[in-house]
Design brief:
single chain; about 130 residues; Cappuccino
C-alpha cells in the first residue's frame, strides 16, 4: 500500500503541472500565435511594397536609359562647348534631344509613400514596437 501511495503522489504532481500548462501557458501561446499572424501579414505587405517599388524603379531606369540613348550621355553645356570648337561630327545624331525640347515628359503613375507609411500623431512614420 505504501508503494501505491508513493507512485500516486508523482502522478498528482504531473497532473497538476499538466493543468497549469493547459490553463496558463496554452492561452499565452494562442495570444502569441495571433500576434505572429499580424507580424506575418505586415511582412507580406512589406514584400508587396518592396516589389512594387522595384518595378517602379526599373520602369524609371528604362526611361532614363531611353532618354540617354535619345539625347546622348553628355550634358548640354559640354555638347555646346564641343560644338563651338568645330568638332561636331562625332556628336551629330539624328533625332537629337535638342530638337525635341518642346515635347513634355509625363511622369509615370508611381506610388506615394505617404499612402503606405501614414504619419503618426507624434510626427514619425513608424510606430515603436511594444516591448
Amino acid at each position: 500500500m505504501t508503494y501505491e501511495l508513493s507512485t500516486y503522489k508523482p502522478c498528482c504532481v504531473i497532473r497538476n503541472d499538466s493543468s497549469q500548462i493547459l490553463n496558463e501557458n496554452v492561452p499565452k501561446m494562442k495570444i502569441k500565435a495571433l500576434e505572429m499572424k499580424k507580424v506575418y501579414a505586415k511582412i507580406d505587405k512589406m514584400e508587396t511594397f518592396v516589389k512594387m517599388v522595384g518595378q517602379n524603379a526599373a520602369t524609371l531606369e528604362q526611361q532614363v536609359i531611353q532618354a540617354e540613348n535619345d539625347c546622348g550621355n553628355l550634358p548640354h553645356a559640354i555638347r555646346k562647348l564641343l560644338h563651338s570648337i568645330s568638332v561636331p561630327s562625332f556628336l551629330n545624331k539624328k533625332g537629337s534631344c535638342y530638337n525635341q525640347q518642346n515635347s513634355t515628359y509625363e511622369l509615370p503613375n508611381l506610388y506615394r509613400s505617404e499612402a503606405y507609411f501614414p504619419e503618426s500623431s507624434d510626427g514619425t512614420y513608424f510606430n515603436k514596437p511594444n516591448t
